Amino acid sequence: MEESFISSLSDLTGKVALVTGGAAGIGLETTIYLARQGATVYAASRNAEKSALGIASAKRRLNGLAGDIRFHQLDLSSVRTAAESAVEFGKREGRLDILICNAGISMMTARKLSPDGFERQFATNHLGHFAFVEGVLGLLERTAGEQGDARVVVVSSDAHRAAPRIDYKALETAVESDGTSYLHLAGAFKRYGTSKLANIYYTVDLDRRLRARGVNNVYCNAIDPGVAGSTGLGAGTDQTIIGPRLEKLIRWLTKLFSNSTEDCAKTQTYLAASAAVTEGDIRGQYWRPKFSWTFKYKSCARQPLGPLASDEEEQRKLLELSQRELRKWKVEVDERQSVAKGDDSA
To answer: Active-site residue 196, yes or no?
Structure first.
């Protein structure tokens, strides 16, 4: 099955890819798949030291028989840091063929909010990625015009199906007592599902906005990767009731009924690197893998979205909020530049 999967991918020699969270877990396996096909892959994350270890292990596994792997600094926890990272990447690279929004956090409490004042899973999983994607969108479009196409793959989850309609007031409200009872775990999972619903809203809306501007060669899709028991998702949770021992037990139990990290990387890699995407005009869709009864990868396919995930009015609301937060950062930049110019002329 591995050989069959590899054969479904295009030669990526000369192409540039960026994978958020690309130096660990599913992201690392995605990075390896893309580099094996010849791409120069940027593993983007906040922690340079940990990323260096992941990149080194990837290069050892590839043994110099493929494209290059590099680190790019990206902190998705705030709109400002994510937007600034996008600007820096544009200065560093002249093209971007593939962008995979893979990084994410889960099972965090609502005790404190992000630097922008939002629930942290929503802030990292959606707002940070929104700011980064919007920041490199011009580069993606330019690359698509010069090279034929570009891809954006957003890693969502079937957890979005458990999410209610997004309550934006709740997302901006801290709950000091959260995480002190087992009953609070359901709330953490619901908030995670909300962030994954936002991922789908953004993907579908981005595709619609691009096509409305006549940009038909940037292919945007969302996916569910499967259940990877060995991924770092959920690690370091601040749930008071989940100590290190209980976390290890939960991870051990999860591994018994989960998919391999490599198999969970296949769907996003396929949508990023298969010629079937352009040939089949696959865009604005939600895909997930199919596994055998032994939890092994068989294939991946489009999955229908429910009424809530397909609600264009809800997608519009999310876009308006996200754009509002990004404009705040742009105002800060303009003010800093104005002050700097004033200092120079003094």
So the answer is: yes
